[in-house]
C-alpha cells in the first residue's frame, strides 16, 4: 500500500512582529484580555508588497532544503489558503513559477482554518492513487488583509505566515505500524457558515470583504467537533489516544486547544503550542507548528502525530500520521 511520508518541513514568518499592546492604542482592549481569553501574545504581519505567495515560497524553499530535494523533484504543489494573491490563477501556480519548477501541476484548496488538513488529505489521495510521487503541501495566509481594524472581537486574533510539508510515496504494509499518513477525516456543515465568514467576494460584492465571526459560538463548536474528529481518525487508523506522541492542533485559541486535549485525555506536554507567538494564521497554523516543532527536534521517527483543525464553513477534520 502506498503511504505518504513526510520528507521535510519548512516555515516562514514575516519580519514585522506585533505585540498585543499595539492594539491598546487603537481599540478598547488590553494585552491582559487578549492573553487570558486566547493565549495570544504576538503575531506577525506581512509587509506592504509582501504577498501570500512570497510567504509560501520562503516556507517551500526551507522544506525542499531540509528534504534534500529541488523543485524539479516535485510532481505537484497544493496550497491551502483563503487569502490568495489574486482571484486567479491559483497561488500554487505562482509558487510553482517562483520555485523555478517547469513541470507537474499546482492548485489551491480553500477550507479556511481547516485548509491544511484538507490539503494534506488531498495530497495523500494524489499519492495513494499514483497521480504523484512527491507533493509539496503548503498552508499560507495573509489574514491581516481581511481584518476590520475596528472590530476588537476579530482583529486581535489573526496573524500572517506560511508552513510547508513535502510528502513522498513509500510502500507500506497497510498497517498502523507504517510510516506516513495513516488516516484522514474531513467534515463540513454549510448550515453553520454564518458563524464565520468574509462579507465580500468576487461574485456577490466584487470586493474582498472583511472577516466576521460569532466567536463564542465558534468556540463551542470547535472543542466538541475537534475532539470528535480526532477520535474518528484514530479509530480509522486502529489507534487510541494513548498511542499519540504529539498533537499538533490548529492554533486559534489556547482555551480551545486545552479543552480539546482534555476531552481526548491527552496531557499538555504532548501538545505543540505556537499560538502565543503566531496568533491564528488560519491554514498556515498547522504546518507552521509542525515545522517549528520539527526544527526543535521534537518528532522522532515512528512517533504518532495527530493534527486537527476547524474553521469557516464550518469545515473541520484531522490527520493521523507516523513520523
Ligand atoms: N478586548 C476586550 N473585550 C473584548 C474583545 C477584545 N479584544 N473582544 C471581545 N470582547 C468583549 C465582547 O465585546 C464582549 O463584551 P460584552 O459582554 O460587553 O458584549 C465580551 O468581551 C465577551 O465576548 P465573547 O465573544 O463572549 O468572549 P469570549 O470569552 O467568547 O472570547 C473569543 C472571545 C476570544 C473570540 C473566543 O470566543 C474565541 O476564541 N472563539 C473562537 C474563535 C476563533 O478562534 N476563531 C478562529 C477561526 S475558527 C477557529 O480557528 C477555531
Write up what this structure looks like.
This protein has helices spanning 21-24, 31-38, 52-67, 91-98, 115-128, 215-237, 254-263, 275-278, 285-295, and strands spanning 2-12, 16-19, 42-45, 76-80, 105-109, 134-142, 160-171, 180-188, 196-198, 211-213, 246-249, 304-311, 315-322. It is α/β, with parallel strands linked by helices. It folds into two domains: 2-171, Thiolase/Chalcone synthase (Peroxisomal Thiolase, Chain A, domain 1), CATH 3.40.47.10; 180-322, 3-Layer(aba) Sandwich (Peroxisomal Thiolase, Chain A, domain 1), CATH 3.40.47. The model has no long low-confidence stretch (mean pLDDT 98). The chain binds acetyl coenzyme *A.
Keyphrases for this structure?
323 residues, Peroxisomal Thiolase, Chain A, domain 1, 2 domains, four-stranded mixed beta sheet, 30% helix, 26% strand, binds acetyl coenzyme *A
Number of helices: 9
In CATH terms, what is the fold-level topology of the largest domain? Peroxisomal Thiolase, Chain A, domain 1
Nearest-integer average pLDDT: 98
The CATH class of the largest domain turns out to be Alpha Beta
CATH homologous superfamily heading of the largest domain: Thiolase/Chalcone synthase
How many β-strands, per DSSP?
Answer: 13
Helix/sheet category: alpha/beta
* N→C terminal distance: 17 Å
Shape: globular
- The CATH architecture term of the largest domain is 3-Layer(aba) Sandwich
Give the strand order of the largest sheet, numbering strands 1, 2, ... along the chain.
1-7-6-4-5
> Could you give a short account of the major beta sheet?
5 strands, mixed
- Which ranges are low-confidence, i.e. pLDDT below 50, for 5 or more consecutive residues? none
Small molecules held by this entry: acetyl coenzyme *A
* Number of domain modules: 2
What is the N-to-C order of secondary-structure elements (H for helix, E for strand)? EEHHEHEHEHEEEEEHEHHHEE
Amino acid at each position: 500500500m502506498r503511504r505518504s511520508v513526510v520528507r521535510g518541513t519548512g516555515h516562514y514568518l514575516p519580519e514585522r512582529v506585533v505585540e498585543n499592546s499595539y492594539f491598546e492604542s487603537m481599540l478598547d482592549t488590553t494585552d491582559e484580555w487578549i492573553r487570558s481569553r486566547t493565549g495570544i501574545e504576538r503575531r506577525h504581519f506581512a509587509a506592504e508588497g509582501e504577498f501570500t505567495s512570497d510567504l509560501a515560497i520562503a516556507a517551500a524553499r526551507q522544506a525542499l532544503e531540509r528534504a534534500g530535494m529541488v523543485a524539479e523533484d516535485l510532481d505537484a504543489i497544493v496550497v491551502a489558503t483563503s487569502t490568495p494573491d489574486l482571484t486567479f490563477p491559483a497561488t500554487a501556480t505562482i509558487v510553482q513559477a517562483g520555485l523555478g519548477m517547469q513541470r507537474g501541476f499546482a492548485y489551491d484548496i480553500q477550507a479556511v482554518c481547516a485548509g491544511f488538513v484538507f490539503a494534506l488529505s488531498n495530497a495523500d489521495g494524489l499519492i495513494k492513487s499514483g497521480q504523484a510521487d512527491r507533493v509539496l503541501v503548503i498552508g499560507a495566509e495573509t489574514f491581516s488583509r481581511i481584518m476590520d481594524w475596528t472590530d476588537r472581537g476579530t482583529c486581535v486574533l489573526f496573524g500572517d505566515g506560511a508552513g510547508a510539508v513535502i510528502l513522498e510515496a513509500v510502500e507500506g504494509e497497510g498497517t498502523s505500524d507504517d510510516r506516513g499518513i495513516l488516516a484522514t477525516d474531513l467534515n463540513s456543515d454549510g448550515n453553520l457558515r454564518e458563524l464565520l465568514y468574509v462579507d465580500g467576494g468576487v461574485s456577490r460584492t466584487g470586493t474582498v470583504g472583511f472577516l466576521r465571526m460569532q466567536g463564542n459560538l465558534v468556540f463551542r463548536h470547535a472543542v466538541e467537533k475537534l475532539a470528535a474528529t480526532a477520535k474518528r481518525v484514530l479509530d480509522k487508523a486502529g489507534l487510541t489516544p494513548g498511542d499519540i506522541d504529539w498533537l499538533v492542533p490548529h492554533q486559534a485559541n489556547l482555551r480551545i486547544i486545552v479543552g480539546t486535549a482534555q476531552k481526548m485525555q491527552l496531557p499538555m506536554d504532548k501538545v505543540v503550542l505556537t499560538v502565543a507567538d503566531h496568533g491564528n494564521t488560519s491554514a498556515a497554523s498547522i504546518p507552521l507548528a509542525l515545522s517549528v516543532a520539527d526544527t526543535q527536534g521534537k518528532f522522532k521517527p515512528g512517533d504518532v502525530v495527530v493534527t486537527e483543525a476547524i474553521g469557516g464553513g464550518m469545515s473541520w477534520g484531522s490527520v493521523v500520521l507516523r513520523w
